[in-house]
Inverse folding.
């Protein structure tokens, strides 16, 4: 097992590098835009570069009296909120039917933060919330047999199938290794913003 995983990591690194070079060469102009396209976005890599830059300038940005001092303070607020939640659940684990031990504050804080900055991904959050409520609340509480039997295997199947589909479409349609062959324009694939989230900088 260890040998298989090691070989996969080594082999996968070369594949990832080759795919990355191909994408950059063929989609450079799109990756440099603010909002990317329905298929490609340089947002993640831009954010990594931005984080490296701003933390290098931490004294000028995050120090007391500087513009973004709330960022390190926010880390302390999050830490204290989780500690307070732990203390409350120790003495009063339930409020009515709500079990406070089931409330995961770090996860709530993490994904709430997406709304503030992740313009290329925040459009999917409503769907994510609906699915989360349906699966984790409705199925888990009212259809436990279905939840136990199917939720994990269906999630794994959808995840694996989605990744495989993206891989195939990236090469066959989206222009990873050559010119893109876009799908026809229709109600589910509008010409301007496929995810129906306009680029704020264009307004």
């Amino acid at each position: 097992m260890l040998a298989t995983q090691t070989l996969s990591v080594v082999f996968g690194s070369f594949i990832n590098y080759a795919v990355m070079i191909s994408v950059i060469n063929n989609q450079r102009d799109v990756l440099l835009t603010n909002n990317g396209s329905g298929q490609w976005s340089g947002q993640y890599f831009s954010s990594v570069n931005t984080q490296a830059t701003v933390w290098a300038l931490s004294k000028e940005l995050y120090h007391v009296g500087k513009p973004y001092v709330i960022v390190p303070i926010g880390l302390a607020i999050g830490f204290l909120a989780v500690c307070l939640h732990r203390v409350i659940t120790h003495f009063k684990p339930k409020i009515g039917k709500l079990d406070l031990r089931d409330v995961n504050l770090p996860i709530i804080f993490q994904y709430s933060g997406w709304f503030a900055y992740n313009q290329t991904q925040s459009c999917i959050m409503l769907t994510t919330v609906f699915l989360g409520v349906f699966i984790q609340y409705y199925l888990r509480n009212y259809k436990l047999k279905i939840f136990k039997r199917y939720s994990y295997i269906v999630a794994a199947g959808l995840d694996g199938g989605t990744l495989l589909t993206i891989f195939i479409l990236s090469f066959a349609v989206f222009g990873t290794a050559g010119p893109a062959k876009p799908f026809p324009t229709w109600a589910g694939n509008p010409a301007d913003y496929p995810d129906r989230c306009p680029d704020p900088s264009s307004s």
Observations:
- The chain is about 65% helix and 0% strand.
- The beta strands are 94-95, 98-99.
- The mean pLDDT is 80.
- The radius of gyration is 22 Å.
